[in-house]
Amino acid sequence: MISSQPMKRIAVIIGHPIPGSFSHAITDAYVASARAHGAEVRILDLAAIAFESVTHDRRDLKVAGLEDTVRLGPEIHDMAETIDWAEHFVFAYPVWWGTYPAVLKGFFDRVFLAGFVFANKKGTAWNKFLTGRTARVFITMDAPAFFDKIWYRGASAASLKFPILWFVGVKTKGITRFDRVRFSTLERRSAWLLKTAELARKDASAK
């Protein structure tokens, strides 16, 4: 029997600048499972998108809605269109120097723009244009997870969850850390990918 439930729209953002990384393996497992369970998935592989991650023009920091992102170039507009389309976001990235790689920060700087994902109001209030949407985060690291949580104070996850996602109205459903990757066995990595696939199944089925 064919389900009448609309397909879940999921955008997967790969924040590793090097192709073929374990972040890519994680997202491959996620995408395959999500699609197998009825979700529609679009992928933003930042290692494969040739966009300028830095701007020196203040006018590039604010737009008048999605259509105005056209003036920033096709790559920026296409990524913004995917963000506008999605109802659930998945981020996968490695911990580099306690946070995420520059390419992911550049993505937020160039795509999560005032006038598109948020807008300032009078005083200190603001509109959150992505309210009602959700996110899941996958983090890889060579250090033990407790080291990231305690010594780094969970800097990468916190800086993504609160000043970015929360600020624009996105609720983070879960943060999964895969630690000691450099020392992991094939069996352990396979188990991680199975866990990823199961989380994708849940996300694809969520209402």
TrEMBL record:
One of its GO terms (cellular component) is cytosol. GO terms for molecular function: NAD(P)H dehydrogenase (quinone) activity. SUPFAM superfamilies: Flavoproteins (SSF52218). Keywords: Oxidoreductase. Pfam families: Flavodoxin_2. InterPro entries: Flavodoxin_fold (IPR003680), Flavoprotein-like_sf (IPR029039), NAD(P)H_dehydrogenase_qn (IPR051545). The keyword Repeat does not apply. Residues 8-181 form the Flavodoxin-like fold domain. Belongs to the NAD(P)H dehydrogenase (quinone) family. PANTHER family: NAD P H OXIDOREDUCTASE-RELATED (PTHR10204), NAD(P)H DEHYDROGENASE [QUINONE] 1 ISOFORM 1 (PTHR10204:SF34). This is Putative NADPH-quinone reductase. It comes from Alpinimonas psychrophila.
